[in-house]
């Protein structure tokens, strides 16, 4: 039985690339930097933010960027512009839970970037059993060891877990750890061909389709995890 559905945040549970592009350019403007192009943002989407900023704004002072970023982040969240989870996505989470699946988040975001999603008054409260992020994981995606803490804490075998994400890096991490992987293409940022180098158990066009995708996978034998998992960082 598939016991856990582990979910990425950005462009999976909620659509964020376009608004993050706007947010980060607002931060750059506030610290006197030129805006990045959308092409650069798209080409680095999926990387941890501060790593990506070296390419998005070469020479940027990361301390200044970080300080302004958290101010703008709070503004965007407060205005309801960032991390809006659609009602149909919440309904899909509830269907997964009714079917007996534990629900968890696993993201490359920092703790500060997810704290609002984990607040006791958030719509996710009571729906999630755990959340894993850069603050409580030793390794980040695409390293397969990103799932080490989750598997150790739950006692689940990798084949009992499905990871739902939107990027080839998500697929690489899940494949390396022996988890099943569902690719969500709803954002339109990536296409099936982008995952050609990785195993994908199912593609979904919109997040709510995950309910049926997971149900179908339950009757399919899970892949065996590789014997050796090396860091890709």
UniProtKB/TrEMBL annotation:
It holds the Pfam family HAD_2. Its EC number is 3.-.-.-. GO terms for molecular function: hydrolase activity. It comes from the Bacteria. The keyword Hydrolase applies. InterPro entries: HAD-like_hydrolase_sf, HAD-like_sf, HAD_2, HAD_sf, PGP-like_dom2. The keyword Ribosomal protein does not apply. Keywords: Hydrolase. It is an enzyme of class 3 (hydrolase). This is HAD family hydrolase. It comes from Nonomuraea roseola. The lineage of its organism: Bacteria, Bacillati, Actinomycetota, Actinomycetes, Streptosporangiales.
């Amino acid at each position: 039985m598939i016991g856990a559905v582990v979910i990425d945040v950005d462009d999976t549970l909620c659509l964020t690339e376009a608004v993050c592009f706007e947010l980060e350019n607002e931060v750059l403007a506030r610290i006197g930097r030129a805006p990045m192009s959308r092409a650069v943002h798209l080409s680095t989407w999926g990387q941890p933010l501060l790593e990506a900023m070296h390419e998005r704004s070469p020479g940027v002072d990361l301390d200044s960027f970080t300080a302004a970023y958290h101010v703008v982040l709070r503004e965007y969240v407060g205005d309801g512009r960032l991390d809006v989870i659609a009602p149909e996505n919440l309904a899909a989470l509830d269907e997964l839970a009714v079917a007996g699946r534990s629900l968890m988040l696993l993201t490359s975001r920092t703790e500060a970037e997810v704290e609002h999603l984990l607040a006791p008054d958030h719509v996710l409260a009571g729906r999630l059993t755990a959340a894993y992020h850069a603050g409580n994981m030793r390794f980040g995606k695409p390293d397969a060891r990103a799932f080490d803490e989750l598997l150790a804490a739950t006692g689940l075998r990798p084949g009992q877990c499905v990871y739902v994400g939107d990027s080839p890096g998500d697929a690489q991490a899940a494949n390396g750890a022996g988890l099943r992987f569902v690719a969500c293409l709803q954002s339109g940022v990536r296409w099936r061909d982008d995952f050609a180098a990785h195993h994908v158990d199912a593609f979904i066009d919109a997040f709510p389709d995950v309910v049926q995708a997971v149900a179908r996978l339950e009757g399919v034998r899970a892949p065996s995890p590789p014997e050796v998992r090396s860091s890709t960082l």
